[in-house]
């Protein structure tokens, strides 16, 4: 098995709240690997994050029927923070802070059979740094998984920064798993 690069999207000094990559999923592959690096927000705020959502075959971002659960380990406490739940409007959460405040996110996501008109599943992990609740650089690690609970053909993915703030930087590479 090997990975074949399908798409590269790079945002530097961006002024966009949402980045949509579509079309990228097709009948060519059953499993996709999404790698995101150097994510940062334009504005610092408490618990800054990006919502990950899927895009259907009509080009519409899907904002319902997701379940996901993740554990977030933060550098200032030993207790993990439980993220997500049932019947959400997002497929996953990617944590990131403003780069000037030492924030960044780096991670990966596996997406299973998105184009197949069945439920679409994901597993992901992220490691990066955060500055909240202080200006000191602290580590952060998130690991989780989820599902889009609809028999829908998925062709793309979107990243939307929380609360209408902008995404400052993001590099996203999407690969198909050749079997």
Structure description:
This protein has strands at 2-11, 18-21, 31-41, 49-56, 66-74, 81-88, 92-95, 104-112, 120-130, 138-148, 154-161, 167-178. With 179 residues, it is mostly beta strands. The strands form two sheets. Strands 1-12-3-8-9-10-5-6 form an eight-stranded antiparallel sheet, with no helix packed on it. Strands 2-11-4-7 form a four-stranded antiparallel sheet, with no helix packed on it. A hairpin with a 6-residue loop joins strand 5 (66-74) and strand 6 (81-88). The chain is globular, with a radius of gyration of 16 Å. The chain starts with a strand and ends with a strand.
Work out the helicity level: under 10%
The tally of strands reads 12
Low-confidence segments, given as residue ranges, are none
pLDDT averaged residue by residue: 89
Sketch the major β-sheet.
8 strands, antiparallel
The value of Rg in angstroms is 16 Å
Structural class: mainly beta
Strand order of the largest sheet: 1-12-3-8-9-10-5-6
Describe the secondary structure blueprint for this structure.
Blueprint: E1 2-11, E2 18-21, E3 31-41, E4 49-56, E5 66-74, E6 81-88, E7 92-95, E8 104-112, E9 120-130, E10 138-148, E11 154-161, E12 167-178
Write out key terms for the chains shown.
mainly beta; eight-stranded antiparallel sheet; four-stranded antiparallel sheet; globular
């Amino acid at each position: 098995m090997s990975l074949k690069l399908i798409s590269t999207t790079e945002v530097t000094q961006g002024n966009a709240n949402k980045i949509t990559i579509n079309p990228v999923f097709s009948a060519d592959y059953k499993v996709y690997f999404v790698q995101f690096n150097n994510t940062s927000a334009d504005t610092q705020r408490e618990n800054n994050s990006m919502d990950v959502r899927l895009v259907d075959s009509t080009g519409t971002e899907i904002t319902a029927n997701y379940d996901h659960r993740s554990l977030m380990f933060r550098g200032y406490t030993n207790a993990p923070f439980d993220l997500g739940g049932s019947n959400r409007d997002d497929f996953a959460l990617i944590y990131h802070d403003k780069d000037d405040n030492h924030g960044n996110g780096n991670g990966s996501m596996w997406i299973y059979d998105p184009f197949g008109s069945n439920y679409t599943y994901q597993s992901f992990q992220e490691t990066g740094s955060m500055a909240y609740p202080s200006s000191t650089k602290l580590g952060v690690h998130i690991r989780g998984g989820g599902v889009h609970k609809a028999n829908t053909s998925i062709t793309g993915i979107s990243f939307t920064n929380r609360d209408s703030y902008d995404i400052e930087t993001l590099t996203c590479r999407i690969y198909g798993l050749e079997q």
